[in-house]
Amino acid sequence: MRFTNTFFAALLACVASVSSQTADQPQPAPCVVRRASHHQQGKIFEDLVENFYRTKNYTRAYTHMVADLIQHNPAVLDGSNASFTTVVGLIGPPSVKVQVLRTAFSAPYGWVHWRIDGLGGAERPSAVVDIFRFNGTCVQEHWDVIQEMPAESVNPHPLF
Fold first, then answer.
1. What percent of the chain has pLDDT over 90?
2. Whether the bond into 74 is cis, omega within 30 of 0
3. How confident is the model at residue 1 (pLDDT cuts 50, 70, 90)?
4. Angstrom distance (rounded) from CA 85 to CA 120
5. What is the side-by-side strand order in the sheet with 126-135?
6. Mean pLDDT over each residue of the chain, to the nearest integer
7. Which of 52, 83, 113, 156 is deepest in the core (most CB within 10 A)?
8. Which sign, positive or negative, has the C-alpha torsion 160, 69, 8, 98?
9. 147 φ/ψ sector (left φ>0, alpha ψ -120 to 50, else beta)
């Protein structure tokens, strides 16, 4: 399987080797599903966004993920363990910059549109949209859509 997108190339390299950064951010126990109102889910989503994207506190962010997390990214295995290791190695380094652009929550789904710079030494940034499906108090399922900024664009609208 050959990926030409820098994001996927970096992702596959990360998956191939466990990052030493996981020692700095130990993986937490997975989330235990409990009933939650739509309002409570929204607050949990806000905490997830704050910790996952803004402060890069993945140990805290992954307290919201179930052990059997369903992962729709073709380069990451199911389960919160595989996702955690990949995320910490891929976007955890200080050289990788993350900027949240937009968020929305409509129970049981939340989405985050964000920009990532410096991924795998890439010169151009990528735009990412993550979609999370909640089951009660926990994230049960994840999708992402990733687009690297092209060197040239025929469309005048900015990527971000």
1. 78
2. no
3. very low
4. 16
5. 65-71, 138-148, 126-135, 109-117, 97-106
6. 89
7. 52
8. positive
9. beta
Q: In sequence order, what are the residues at sequence separation of 6 or more whose Cβ sits closer than 8 angstroms to the Cβ of residue 43?
A: none
Helix, strand, or coil (residue 69): strand
Pair of tokens at residue 80: 């919160």
pLDDT single digits (tens) 7-35: 556 555 554 444 444 558 999 999 999 99
Helix axes 80-91, 6-16, angle to 10 degrees: 120
Count helices and strands in the chain by DSSP H and E runs: 4, 5
Backbone angles phi, psi at 44, to 5 degrees: -65, -40
CA distance 69 to 85: 13
Secondary element (H or E) of residue 137 = none
CA torsion sign for 32, 38, 40, 44 is positive
Rounded CA gap, 7 and 90, in Å?
9
Residue 153, pLDDT above cutoff 50:
yes
> What amino acid occupies position 98?
V
Is pLDDT of 143 > 90?
yes
Q: Which two tokens stand for residue 47?
A: 């905490």
Model's pTM, two decimal places?
0.87
